[in-house]
Amino acid sequence: MSEANEELVRRHFEESFNRKNVAVTVAEDFVEHAAAPFAESAPGRVSGPEAIRASAEWLVAAFCSTATA
Questions:
Q1: How does pLDDT run across 17-64, given as a tens digit for each residue?
Q2: Hey, how many other C-beta atoms are within 10 angstroms of the C-beta on 17?
Q3: Which of 29, 34, 17 is nearest to 9 (CA)?
Q4: Residue 20, class by beta-carbon neighbours within 10 Å (0-12 exposed, 13-18 middle, 19+ buried)?
């Protein structure tokens, strides 16, 4: 993977999961190769920014609780 691609992946994870900013921009030609459990389409048929945002929102809700003890 090129350094530019590695940086894009790092930014996506930093923004989406650490900062909980799921509105981060992703490429229009994004293709999900492993559909999330809630997906209605088979892997490779879910694509575009809305698909990755939906996956990120689902993961943030499931694993990144903002509740404090």
A1: 888 887 776 677 777 677 656 666 666 666 677 877 777 788 888 886
A2: 15
A3: 17
A4: middle
